[in-house]
Amino acid sequence: MRIEIEPGLIDTNTMKSPVSTQVHALLAPWDDPQGERFGGLPPFDQASPAAIEAAVHAAIEAKRLEIQAIVSNASAPTFENTLEALEDSGRALKRVQTIASVFSAAMLVGEMPAVAQRIAPLLSALEDEIAHCEPLFTRVDAVWTVRAEAGLNEQQLRLVQVVRERMLRQGAGLSATDKERLQEINSQLATLSARYNQNLVDEQERLAVFIDDAAGLEGLADTQRSAMAVEAAQRGHPGQWAVPCTRPAVWSFLINSTQRELRERVWRMWTNRGDSAGDFDNKPLLVQMLNLRGLKARLLGFPSFAHLITADRMAGTPEAALNLLLRTWQDVLPITRTQIAALQLIADAEGQSIDLAPWDRLHYAEKLRRERFGFDSNAVKPFLQLDAVLQAMFWCAGRMHGFVFRELSGVPTVHPSVRVFEVVHVEQPVGVLYFDLFNRPGKMHGSYQSEYRSFESFRGKVLPISSINSSFPPVPAGAPVLLPWEYANVFFHEFGHALHMLCNACEYSTLGSMGVAWDFVELPALINERWLLDHEVLQRFARHHETGEPIPQALVQALERAAKFDRIFALNLDYLAPAIVDMKLHLMADGEPGRLIDAIAVEQHALADLGMPLEWDQIMRVTHNVHCFAGGYAAGLYSYLWAEVMAADAAEFFTQSPGGLFDRAAAQHWTRTVLSVGTQVPAEQAYHNFRGRNPDPLALLRRFDLAPSTMPSSELVE
């Protein structure tokens, strides 16, 4: 049933020759620079905005033809001629979408922003068109009806179930009028989401705080000052220093600068992203998006968008997720107030006549770590060279899974700074892993993992291709890339997602790792962070970039004490506040006629009701919360806390095994029951298969020596 793009499907008369050549390259099966070792790699060197847009149009039409061939089949519906044919369709579109998504996230310059906004609604419309194709759903439903007598194996039965349920959730059972309305809503949401992200990319590239007096650099290291001077010169301010609106630059300045007025300016620049009137204002987009999400939920028969999203996740209901967040908030709030008091004491002891403010928190928290735990984050950086951190990841994966990583050359990439590695097991290729870690113009800020191609085997083995992405500031040529502890941890986190993709063994890509319940997907990434803290790993790879000396044991112990005091991302108000706001906003998104949701007002009221300390702030405000308004975390930001409970419980399985974190039997069991199964079974069953029981929420408390009375929630164990 596969239909590959033929030259005749593209009208090249309207294209210039170079673009026509590029379009063919984007649509065709990928070539393999390594001699067909990996089944082809993305031809990023053949991509341009014009070619991407033309290829998307051609690939959409090709997939329409493939769907039409399925529904017009005169034979009775079977698993092979319907479900497998559907699974086999759209391969050209998958290839083009990979290129388009990478350029939309990592090379959003020139004509690409306009192209991204034009193709987003086209792809959304096609997805709806397929989900709403009544003859197609009739065939899928017919296979579902006779599944017990069809001799299907477990994966095939699961595929029928997943595809049928997905089509229903996308509106397959709606009337023709409601389907048309839903398609309009989805198209508008796709456009608004692309605009929301583009606003942030454009605004953040223009924002910077300039310093024209060297006195404003007090407290900053020489390397930081040099980077700021280069940044200012590149922005047309030679002889000055600039703090660009990127998280590494902002957080480093807030931690180290002794100039409170400048810290406030930098903090306000960072926290007000997307919230200023003008071309990059995201507030009007939020109103429209929340209203449309509510209308979508109502059309599909749900009381709110939050109910729609949680219905097929482990949480089950927004109330269960919100209960977990609120109970955790009540447990963390008094601890946070104690921390604030300790920070205020440090400021008082310095003779600072100030009331602690959000722009002071990181600065005094660093001093608290030094005084109380003997930990200086700047002292750790010389031991965390990027190449060493990557090798630490690879070494851990080798001990756990038997993987070997070898860097490839001559592979097309979206930018020269991207590095590519083959992954092999017993000399057999497993997949390919890209690292795109450095910031550049037109690149989305933040760290994330993406999948270029999913593993499958029903038509022959197809190897996975994964990518780890970040926006770490580039360093001058020849200079070592030294990571703050936070970034080393983030890279281990994203590598956990990549391992989830690389270990996937599902016969059908629809059942693969990217299809698992969204509040389960963070589990492999969160638990992978634990290997970075292992003493053997640190002694092997955390070595001074100049002397080669291993990180001192005293510094490791100070790091452990500070990490336990700071707790994890999900056990802090910085995260809990936006997660609660996210759920409250999407509970309000109910499609009530005439409802206009003022996201800023809801956010402010929620923080006041929660008793958010004035000295604290959120890591994500609604105007720059890419997770929820440009990514897949709408009504799902709670997922990090949900998964942290499982990650703490799963980590105890390893630490209680004879070989500890590196116990091979434990690793094989983890891979067999979790990493390799995708969504062949529901997430709760996969975890139960691994642990032999439901997660124990007390494991998260034990990790941080918290009393049982602070138990986040019992929802996960019910």
Task: Describe what you observe in this structure.
This protein is an alpha+beta fold and 718 residues long. Among the domains are: 7-131 and 133-169, Neurolysin, domain 3; 207-271, no CATH class; 283-360 and 569-717, Neurolysin, domain 3 (Orthogonal Bundle). 54% of the residues lie in helices and 6% in strands. The chain contains 28 helices and seven strands. Helix 8 packs antiparallel against helix 12 and helix 14 (318-349) runs antiparallel to helix 22 (573-588). The chain is globular, with a radius of gyration of 26 Å.
Q: What is this entry, summarized?
A:
The protein is α+β, with helices and mostly antiparallel strands and 718 residues long. Helices cover 54% and strands 6% of the residues. Helix 10 crosses helix 15 (358-373) and helix 22 crosses helix 23 (599-610).
